[in-house]
Amino acid sequence: MHFCIVGAGFSGAVIARRLAEAGHTVLVVDERAHIAGNCHTERDAATGIMLHRYGPHIFHTADREVWDFVNRFTRMMPYVNRVKAISGGAVYSLPVNLHTINQVFGTTMGPAEARDFIAAQARRDIVEPANFEEQALSMVGERLYRAFFRGYTRKQWGLDPTELPASILKRLPLRFNYDDNYFAHPFQGMPEEGYTEIVRRILDVPGVELRLGCRFEDIGGDFAHVFYSGPLDRFFGYRLGRLGYRTLDFEEIRAEGDFQGTAVLNYCDEAVPWTRISEHKHFAPWEAGRFDGTVCFREYSRLCGAADIPYYPIRLVGEKRMLSDYVALARQARNVSFVGRLGTYRYLDMDVTIREAMDAAGMTLARLREGLAP
Ligand code: FAD
Ligand code: UDP
């Protein structure tokens, strides 16, 4: 059968490979001039440093099958994401751990003492946090909330934390030991030759035809089924309105040597307009010493306009209502599956994206084996 896949990010590439391996032909289109979607990496022409073009990407997962899958296409180099944060003129360790707590309060507490101390700081009257602020206050109390979360979150989302869902903060751990690994997953690493090289290898299989610089809206063709990883609202011509996104602007900093001494430095004070600075050569510690120069991206978040790249789905009440109306339209659409970050309007990490793409292809292949339509 002949399939069309819209988008050459992880979603599209994984589905294309699975279908092609099962003997089908697949046309993959992407309107950008490169593959790998927002995970795109490329070496900087001037310095040779591997740049994460659309912001820092660290691979982490608890899904053994997904980890084995990516390791088929690259060597995953050891990498642990250790984030530092500037707040009120001092540098701290994130996610909030025993070091952070002792730094902020000027103490030398041990784990049990710190747990009791933070419990006493936390708002015990908030039993079921209704929003981001309540979640933070019930978890870490006023002082840590103000130091690390309030200002950063207002910059990142352009909203007051009382308007945001509690789930956004639940992504971050709180630790009463000195473990400063930003992620809690058992598998973590950085691809030796970048993410774009993984996607290139995933797509490098007989039966896959790739067309870059090509919009789905501009192609014709008779396809047994379309897997669409573009924006859901765009597929329907925005007829119910636009789903809200945050977009990012990156301001490039070039310097000699080492600019900030680490890969990611968050700026938690609201008075500083950017949210974080990423220094890309530190994402490849195994290449340390190879480059004289350095390249950093200063990151600014703002509301996504019609001509901007959508990054973070906002998912407030208004968007959720619009989303369910679009989902109803999507269910009626014949021969189309909506996949990935944009197709399902959800914040998906790479590992979940790959898992869901494997499952989507698997379900289609299972239907075909049963003699059903894809
Ligand atoms: P995308 O990568 O967005 O690919 C979709 C593709 O479809 C795009 O290339 C687009 O050009 C194309 N397209 C859309 N519409 C059309 C059309 N009509 N015609 C043709 N082409 C079209 N995840 C992690 O696991 N770890 C991280 O550290 C991490 N950091 C992140 C940092 C930032 C700043 C952001 C925004 C995300 C981060 N993520 C991270 C999430 C990660 O980027 C996503 O999981 C991943 O990109 C999703 O892949 P996708 O294929 O669904 O979508
Ligand atoms: N956050 C914060 N301060 C920080 C880091 C994160 O307030 O220093 C909040 C912010 O609202 C962010 C959320 O926690 O959107 C989740 O953080 P994560 O690091 O997962 O953000 P992402 O990688 O998605 O940008």
Question: Topology, pairings included?
Answer:
Blueprint: E1 2-6, H1 10-21, E2 25-30, E3 41-43, E4 50-52, E5 59-61, H2 64-73, E6 76-77, E7 83-87, E8 90-94, H3 98-105, H4 111-121, H5 132-157, E9 187-191, H6 195-203, E10 208-212, E11 225-228, H7 232-235, E12 245-256, E13 264-267, E14 276-279, E15 293-303, E16 312-313, H8 317-332, E17 336-338, H9 340-343, H10 350-369
Parallel strand pairs: 1-2, 1-11, 2-10, 7-13, 11-17
Antiparallel strand pairs: 3-4, 5-9, 6-9, 7-8, 12-15, 12-16, 13-14, 14-15
Bound molecules: flavin-adenine dinucleotide and uridine-5'-diphosphate.
Uridine-5'-diphosphate binds at residues 85, 94, 148-149, 152-153, 156, 168-169, 171-172, 266, 268.
GO molecular function: flavin adenine dinucleotide binding; UDP-galactopyranose mutase activity
Domain UDP-galactopyranose mutase C-terminal: 147-347
EC number: 5.4.99.9
